[in-house]
UniProtKB/TrEMBL annotation:
Molecular-function GO terms, alphabetical: transmembrane transporter activity
Location, primary (coarse class): membrane
UniProt superkingdom: Eukaryota
GO CC, any one term: membrane
Protein keywords: Membrane, Transmembrane, Transmembrane helix, Transport
Protein name: DUF914-domain-containing protein
Residue segments, region Disordered: 369-388
Record Pfam families: SLC35F (PF06027)
Subcellular location as annotated: Membrane
Species lineage: Eukaryota, Fungi, Fungi incertae sedis, Mucoromycota, Mucoromycotina
Transmembrane intervals: 40-63, 75-94, 106-123, 129-154, 161-183, 195-213, 225-244, 256-275, 287-307, 313-332
InterPro entries given in the database record: EmrE-like (IPR037185), SLC35_F1/F2/F6 (IPR009262), SLC35F_Transporter (IPR052221)
Length: 388
């Protein structure tokens, strides 16, 4: 009986969020002060910038709908990101350091790269088969997937208001979809079941990729995580391109309009892949995905001029609801995952582990350095005494 009670208590302790000591409990006014917190404002602004970038990718993908090639669209982005961030890694760590990170953690980044490539592929491909509104709703599945995976793998513990914040933000998305139903901003589904399954699969893969990337970004430098993920993704993407879209790519390269849209798409994706991991480190993958829910509102602004969309009163209300949901999530401090964060101390520890430097070696080097400094300081004094 006692053992059963102990097991139950352990389960409760595992699930529940950490309690706040009475001395640290705050009034509502004190809690709302987070709205003036520079960190919250940075997270909010960064999230909305990334949401605008997502809007850019959605608009260009819509304009390229007649030439739908999901693998080709992402190849150039992976290639540029890989070149930029692996160059930074080699500059920071040397070629030996780059080879060491490749050898020791390459398998993890290969799996992450594969998941990311296929997530992009299935979500873009889903728009060919299912209706626009179904794709929008099912794509939001990424947010609860990230929250569930963060709970188990990152050991993040949430409070009731943070669950409520996610729910409110998703309600905001529902209002956007309702507005689209009213205005008829939809198209018929060619194969609804196939498209919906593709969208759910892609959204789930996005969630896995986000949480996996957050796990790595909390343990290793930004340039390593982004560089290595995109390095493997480039090769995976290229092989898939040659198998699935070789003929379409040849026709695509002849269109100057398509090339222009591709460059805009690549610029937006470069920002997402560069700044997304920073968002993971600052606030987590859950906040990242919550922030992206406003992208449909920004899409409306472009759609008014480009696609002849009409607007209803629900759109601005829905935008405010999503922002309120994000703010509610931040009412309590954003949960710090049990795996910790990446600070200067963790960075130095990670560097030592990568190059196989033991702590004893570092201490010996520090002692030798101090002794050298002491000898240098004593030398002038001895010279002066000798002259006297």
């Amino acid at each position: 009986m006692e053992s059963e009670k102990t097991k139950w208590q352990r389960l409760v302790d595992y699930v529940k969020a950490p309690e706040i000591p009475p001395s640290e409990k705050k009034t509502w006014k004190e809690r709302l002060m987070f709205l003036k917190d520079p960190k919250f404002l940075k997270v909010l602004l960064l999230g909305q910038f990334l949401s605008l970038c997502i809007t850019g990718t959605n608009v260009t993908t819509t304009l390229l709908a007649s030439n739908s090639m999901p693998t080709t669209q992402t190849f150039l982005n992976y290639l540029i990101v890989a070149v930029v961030y692996n160059s930074i890694a080699i500059y920071k760590r040397g070629f030996k350091g780059w080879l060491l990170q490749f050898w020791r953690r390459g398998l993890y980044y290969f799996v992450l790269g594969f998941i990311d490539v296929e997530g992009n592929y299935f979500v873009v491909k889903a728009y060919e088969y299912t209706s626009l509104l179904s794709a929008m709703l099912l794509d939001a599945w990424t947010t609860p997937v990230v929250m569930i995976l963060s709970f188990f793998f990152l050991r993040a513990r949430y409070r009731w208001l943070q669950y409520l914040g996610v729910f409110v933000a998703l309600c905001g998305l529902g209002m956007l979809v309702a507005s689209d139903v009213i205005t008829g901003k939809n198209y018929a589904a060619a194969d609804a079941l196939k498209g919906d399954l593709f969208c759910i699969l892609g959204a789930t893969l996005y969630g896995l990729s986000n949480v996996g990337e957050e796990f790595m970004i909390r343990k290793h430098p930004h340039y390593e995580v982004v560089g290595m993920l995109s390095f493997f993704a480039t090769f995976i993407n290229f092989v898939q391109l040659m198998i699935l879209e070789r003929n379409e790519f040849a026709d695509f390269s002849k269109s100057s309009f398509s090339i222009g849209m591709m460059l805009i798409y690549t610029a937006c994706m470069f920002c997402i892949y560069s700044l997304g991991p920073i968002m993971f480190r600052m606030a987590g993958a859950v906040v990242f995905n919550l922030s992206l829910l406003t992208s449909d509102f920004y899409g409306l602004i472009f759609g008014l001029g480009l696609f002849g969309y009409s607007v209803t009163f629900l759109y601005p209300i829905a935008y405010v609801v999503v922002i309120v949901g994000i703010a509610a999530y931040h009412f309590f401090p954003v949960p710090e995952p049990g795996i910790g964060g990446f600070d200067k101390e963790r960075e130095e520890q990670e560097r030592r582990e990568l190059f196989g430097i033991k702590s004893e070696d570092v201490e010996r080097q520090d002692v030798e350095h101090i002794e050298e400094m002491s000898d240098e300081a004593l030398t002038p004094e001895l010279s002066t005494e000798g002259k006297n």
